[in-house]
Each structure stands twice: as C-alpha cells, then as structure tokens.
Specification:
Layout (H helix, E strand, L loop, with lengths): L3 E5 L5 H14 L6 H13 L4 E7 L2 E13 L4 E11 L8 H15 L4 E3 L7 H9 L17
Parallel strand pairs: 4-5
Antiparallel strand pairs: 1-2, 2-3, 3-4
Length: about 150
C-alpha cells in the first residue's frame, strides 16, 4: 500500500474535496449534493474562512479535515475548531485519520493556537478512542450548549 500523504489543500483541490465532503455529509445523514458541497468549499476558500487538509493514498483522495479559526479573548490567542474530519470507507483503519490529526495539530502549533476543539458523536466510540489516544481530552470545565436557528 502507498503511504498516506497529507497536505494543506489549495483551491485546485476543490473537486476532489467536494466528493469527500459530499460523502461526509451523507455519512451525517444529509442527502447527496456534490454541487452544493463544491459551492460551500469554494466560499470557504474565497473568503479564507477555513483551513483544509487533504489526505491521499497514492493518487487517491482518502480523507479531509477542516479547521475553522476563532480567538480566545481570555488567552489573547488564536484557537481552532476541528469541525470536520472524514476518511472515505475504503481508507479507514489505514492511519489516514491519524495523519490528518497530526497535520491539524502541527498547524495549531505553527499558528501558536491556545487550543484545538472538536465535537464527536456520542455513538462514535472509534473516533473517541483515536482522539483520546492522541491526547485530546473531554472537557471537564465547560458544557457546550447549542441553539439551532431556522
């Protein structure tokens, strides 16, 4: 098997990323809509609103991770939300997610971020285990609340 290579995505990667994002959205219970996925990514790139890492095995796109920047007023530093991490079914259990997390963590260090945060589904123990193995900790200080908007 070829090595897993991870790099920060560029605008030319949008078609490959859009296919992965569409698979990810379907995994999350959304209907297929590759054109909407492509438009969404294009907007993020056009406005510099996220940092996306693309994993490939050989020439095949295998997964992606998407970070959104934010800032901590208390720490007076940047922080990131790891909003999306997805590995295509054919590439799971091959270290792709680990390599994506390594890239995300390295980016956080490079940007001198105070923290990286993520949410993981309670019914996804495999992902929870991976995050714990990499040193991510469940927050013991704060509860997260969400308010859905129409």
């Amino acid at each position: 098997m070829s090595a897993v290579l991870v790099r920060q995505a560029v605008v030319q990667d949008i078609p490959a990323l859009a296919a992965l994002v569409d698979q990810y959205r379907q995994f999350q219970g959304q209907p297929a809509d590759p054109m909407a996925a492509q438009a969404f990514l294009r907007e993020r790139f056009d406005h510099g609103e996220s940092v996306v890492f693309l994993a490939a095995v050989g020439a095949e796109p295998a997964g992606f991770a998407q970070l959104y920047p934010l800032f901590s007023t208390v720490a007076l530093r940047r922080a990131f939300i790891l909003n999306d991490l997805f590995v295509g079914p054919a590439w799971r259990r091959l270290g792709v997610a680990t390599r994506l997390l390594e890239a995300v963590e390295a980016h956080g260090h490079t940007m001198q971020a105070v923290r990286l945060s993520l949410n993981v589904a309670r019914n996804n123990p495999a992902a929870q285990q991976l995050y714990r193995e990499r040193g991510w900790c469940e927050d013991q200080q704060f509860l997260m609340f969400n308010r859905s908007l129409p």
